[in-house]
Amino acid sequence: MKRHASTALAALCAVALLLCATTAFAKPILIKFSHVVAENTPKGLMANKFRELVEQRMGDKVVVEVYPNSQLFGDDKVLEAMLLGDVQLAAPALSKFESYTKVLQIYDLPFLFKDMGAVEKFQQGPNGQKMLHSMEDKGVLGLGYLHNGLKQLSSSDPLRVPADAVGKKFRIMASDVLAAQFEALQAIPLKKPFSEVFTLLQTKAIDGQENTWSNIYSKKFYEVQPYITESNHGLLDYLVVTSAEFWNGLPDDVRAELKKCLDEAIAFGNKIAGDKDDEDKKKIADSGRSKIIELTPEQREQWVEAMKPVWKQFEGQVGTDNLEAAIASNK
Ligand code: SIN
């Protein structure tokens, strides 16, 4: 009897030890966060902040690796990679989800939002929040919006009125709305990955491109583009996404803590996006490499008139109710 009891006790101790060892040596969950921009941009800084927060608060359970500058995947491949489990987090521009959902195309409509306040209002409102779930049937979960800012037009020749863009080649993100926007100007849009833009500009394979001040500065586009028109004609914001399979497979407590870290990192990124816009515009102006063209109200109105017909073209795809809510967010 005594011998049986001590054997059972020994077995129990062995199981307990094994459990302790398994917990102590359990491999942390690895989250690879892949993006295409430089580290010193709203998205780069947000991703690094997320890594820091996770390390501080749950470093024993989760490790975040951030891959900037298209080191791991470009935006043309990252969603596929995410669904295959090769990447767990990404934050592509809202323009790059076209093959997964049509509703996010609303964010590409030119001159839709008067400023970033209106963008924030729409994104946090019911229509914007519903869009976070628009790709769940494809296995992609939207976890939150991240700001960059409004886009400017850079070019090898001065662009003051829409007629100046006729026949010129512009690199665009992979978006049919952006293609239609440049076609409305009788310009030639070319869908190309972000990683190729500098070389395309440098070799003069294209005449221009549209981007935010932080991307124009951090990727040195201003060094090879003598003119930047401050057009603020469109939005470049991001959707932080993960795969439903990965996210829903996480233990509840880990998922909840990760979401908190992510919300904080996004709030941090959104707070600095506006400042970076002003700072990077100033650095470009101070460099003297690129002349910044300010439009008169009359010139700006000409760009609005030339580009705005695109709204009608895509209203059916983005949804009339969404369009009306976006317009209302400007009030
Ligand atoms: C990005 O900001 O993530 C890239 C934008 C672009 O492709 O122009």
What is the N-to-C order of secondary-structure elements (H for helix, E for strand)? HEHEHEHHEEHEHEHEHHEHHH
Mean of residue pLDDT values: 94
Note the beta-strand portion.
Answer: 15-25%
Structural category is alpha/beta
CATH class: Alpha Beta
Shape: globular
The total of helices stands at 13
Set out the fold topology.
Elements: H1 2-25, E1 29-34, H2 42-58, E2 62-67, H3 78-83, E3 89-90, H4 116-124, H5 126-131, E4 140-155, E5 169-172, H6 176-183, E6 188-191, H7 197-202, E7 208-211, H8 213-218, E8 227-243, H9 244-248, H10 252-287, E9 291-294, H11 297-307, H12 310-318, H13 320-328
Parallel strand pairs: 1-2, 1-3, 5-6, 5-7, 8-9
Antiparallel strand pairs: 4-7, 4-8
Helix pairs in contact: 2-10
The site of succinic acid (SIN) has 9 residues, from loops.
Characterize the structure shown.
- The structure is a single chain.
- The strands form 2 sheets. A 6-stranded mixed β-sheet has the order 6-5-7-4-8-9, sandwiched between helices.
- The chain has a single domain (14-328), classed as Bacterial extracellular solute-binding protein, family 7 (D-Maltodextrin-Binding Protein, domain 2, 3-Layer(aba) Sandwich).
- The N and C termini lie far apart (83 Å).
- It is an alpha/beta fold and 331 residues long.
- Helix 2 (42-58) runs antiparallel to helix 10.
- 46% of the residues lie in helices and 19% in strands.
- The structure holds succinic acid.
